[in-house]
Design brief:
The structure is a homodimer.
Chain A lengths: L5 H6 L1 H4 L3 E13 L3 E7 L7 E6 L5 H5 L6 E10 L7 E12 L14 H5 L9 H23 L3 E2 L5 E2 L11 E3 L25 E3 L4 H11 L1 E9 L12 E10 L3 H22 L1 H10 L4 H10 L3 E4 H9 L17 H11 L4 E7 L15 E9 L3 E8 L4 H10 L8 H8 L5 E7 H9 L20
Parallel strand pairs in A: 3-5, 6-10, 12-13
Antiparallel strand pairs in A: 1-2, 1-4, 2-3, 4-5, 7-9, 8-9, 10-11, 11-16, 13-14, 14-15, 15-16
Helix pairs in contact in A: 5-7, 5-8, 5-14, 7-9
């Protein structure tokens, strides 16, 4: 079928003016008088809707006038510019083909629905303004991320989803199995015989692709992952999901400074890409979700990010300890209240906090010369706090295995990872960006359930 | 660190000629005479390697000369054009910093290793020529797919990985659970009490995002998915993996013709993108993996794909039944031998086979007017057979539920899917492209384990 999209019509209305066009879409509203009527039509390709005017010269005038919200139709007609009206043009329909009717009990009537209600109909909510905007922007952010890294010749690596290791260390894991839970094979020790499982051992869903990603950075220099990760954590908050996507670049022959430069360039690139490619959606968010959104994002895109060591940050925050629920002192982990205070009140722009105490960070982070801190970095942004976490990695075999011993980690589980430090090790660094957190940040949406098409949280795995 | 990549040097050698550059990379080989030596260096950004010349004026001349293959170094020196030599330029090193040594037992010595051996060191094999080429091309194909759909304003949808439905119907599933297998909660019926599991019920890994994807096509018109899918099938072949990525576009207000047009345009776009952006890698595959690769791909990119109905295809194949292990007759499913015969011998180009008997296809495919066949399409390509499978979907509520009853499917499991046929249903279509099969097709690699960074197959889940 030769259909024109609503996006094409808006982008090139001059070209189509006075011409006959055919558009397919879903009815947002119909109102009719005796001899003519108006239809507001959405075809999902553009945030703005299309106005269709139809007349009683049509055979099915009465039938069209009775169509319910949500019905699918194909409209043929002439595009007429309407410079004096609210909308820039309309279609004077000569024919309307009814593809599929809707019903009067269609769950999305023309009124405001609560986010909570819309979550119960995740298969229909993308038809609303809010979720049209959210999920188109989500798609654009994903593409901006690929585009950013590919333009810089990074290699996209699909790290595995099912992992035989429980050594990723970032959280509670989901078990993956083909064993029949009602009829488990038992070993002689009275425990489940995992050797009978699909992979010949117990396997889980990944919590991070980083360790695998590092192996590819040691071959391609610059790589990134972009895939789903999982946490089986029993936390029912607005910011946690059991299944979410993560981007994890890893760069070789690079240190913490290079890592921060990369993270800063990436965030600015994403923001600019979305502001440029989804202006209608961003204006909608700014009007209905968060009045300061666009100003804040433009501020981030236009400022040089601050850089401050954890030790300095603690000194700065200590002066305001009376304003915090949790008082800070050297050695403590930063809470969201501290992070937001740093970026919103003290720096008034995004800021990297670097060189955290080694005891509050992961084993693979590079030990600094002070012997107390590691070359970690967290990127804090106004309105949210931490959005990116990363580090330079410990490339020294002896220091790394020493740290693993301190923490009681089993070296055999990390053979492949230690090989990287035996065979041509080099300074390298990387970070992780939670994709959904990034979408929340760019849209102003405050609940992670509303930026994931079909969210998975404790007790919730619908559709 | 301000490093220039080998890719940049090759792309702009004139610009760098006579200038001092700094490059980090890994040693592929070293050979020295008394007063000078040669290093072949790879930094992973470009398929070609960099020649470095170093001299005994360097303090660490002896140490450098003893470096093992795989060592990481940083080289400073002047880029000198060498128009008469095999390589277009070399670096006359003034300084070599040793980042990380390798050892004499480095598993990748300068010789041919078997694919089987390299599979046992999946963390190191991307350092070899073959896997440098495979995994850069894999990355480029992934990007080409995003680029193709985004340029056409398709919305990228992350359909869920963990699913509460076992209704996707495409194969054996992996169970996902947080229950302690050694201490399962039992219900009164003596069976495992799945209500105690993380999501309050039994959940599995997805086998297809299509049904979820359709819900988004009914909101955005044109969408695509690109994510991991899973099959717990006990098949140990060169073409099956338990974890693989799939692309599933879905288009609304579109029929089977539109679907074929889209698939054909996509395949041609991917091929052209890779030929243009990875000429060195493709030349390597053509020389060492498959001598007809580039000619075949150019043929596909340059030809109009054939289109033939299943019924006509059966008539054509029947004439050659003496050449087949499995004889064809109307109603049978096509085997790879038939598919390849059609595309390689009869059509001598890619061909879509359409309108298969309904009994060998899925329940959601649109019934044709003949009542016997469905609007399915398989795309067959020379050298491999089926690479894409898709269909127009049944948009009629009564026909769809009728077909589900015939097949004994439980309607309650498909409530959300049937809603799409109640509220503004429209003709729509989609297809699935197995990403790894696509990578195999474009690289000539014959084992799926060699196009996945960390492959998962029966009994194998390493790293």
């Amino acid at each position: 079928m030769e259909l024109i999209t609503v996006r094409e019509l808006f982008k090139e209305k001059e070209k189509f003016a006075g011409k006959e066009v055919t558009v397919g879409g879903w009815i947002r509203s119909v109102r009719d008088s005796k001899t003519f009527g108006f239809i507001v039509l959405s075809d999902g390709t553009y945030f703005e809707t299309l106005q269709v005017v139809y007349h009683d010269k049509m055979e099915n005038f009465a039938e069209v006038s009775k169509l319910n919200v949500g019905s699918a139709i194909i409209v043929k007609g002439e595009l007429t510019l309407t410079p004096d009206a609210k909308q820039p043009f309309e279609i004077q329909a000569t024919e309307i083909i009814i593809e599929g009717k809707s019903t009067s009990d269609y769950p999305l009537q023309k009124k405001r629905h609560s986010m909570e209600y819309l979550r119960t109909i995740s298969h229909l909510r993308p038809r609303t303004n809010t979720f049209q905007a959210v999920f188109r922007v989500r798609s654009l952010i994903a593409y901006a991320i690929h585009k950013f890294f590919q333009e810089r010749d990074f290699v996209y690596v699909h790290t595995p989803i099912i992992t035989g290791s429980d050594a990723e260390g970032a959280g509670e894991m989901f078990r993956v199995t083909t064993l029949d839970l009602d009829n488990l094979p038992m070993g002689e020790d009275g425990k489940v015989d995992n050797s009978k499982d699909f992979f010949g051992k117990a396997t889980n869903l990944t919590v991070s692709g980083q360790l695998n990603g590092e192996t590819y950075a040691m071959a391609f220099k610059n790589i990134y992952t972009f895939g789903p990760t999982f946490r089986a954590e029993n936390s029912n908050t607005t910011r946690h999901a059991a299944e979410f996507w993560m981007i994890e670049p890893e760069i070789a022959f690079a240190d913490l400074e290079d890592n921060m430069d990369l993270a800063e360039a990436m965030l600015k690139y994403i923001i600019n890409y979305v502001l440029e490619n989804a202006p209608e959606e961003m204006a909608f968010f700014n009007q209905f979700i968060d009045k300061e959104l666009i100003e804040r994002l433009k501020g981030v895109a236009g400022s040089d990010f601050g850089r401050v060591s954890y030790t300095e940050a603690i000194e700065l925050l200590k002066e305001h300890n009376d304003e915090f629920d949790y008082k800070v002192s050297w050695g403590c982990d930063l809470q969201t209240e501290h992070e937001r205070y740093l970026t919103e009140k003290i720096f008034k722009r995004p800021v990297f906090v670097t060189d955290y105490p080694k005891d509050i960070k992961a084993f693979y982070m590079k030990l600094n010369e002070d012997g107390k801190t590691v070359a970690a970095m967290d990127c804090l942004v106004p309105g949210i706090g931490e959005i990116i976490g990363g580090s330079q990695r410990e490339e020294d075999y002896d220091l790394l295995t020493g740290r693993m011993k301190e923490l009681g980690l089993n070296e055999a589980d990390y053979d492949f990872y230690l090989d990287l430090r035996k065979y041509g090790s080099t300074r390298h660094a990387g970070f992780g960006l939670g994709f959904e957190r990034c979408v929340m940040y760019l849209t102003g949406m405050s609940n992670i359930r509303d930026v994931i098409p079909f969210p998975r949280t404790v007790g919730n795995c619908e559709l």
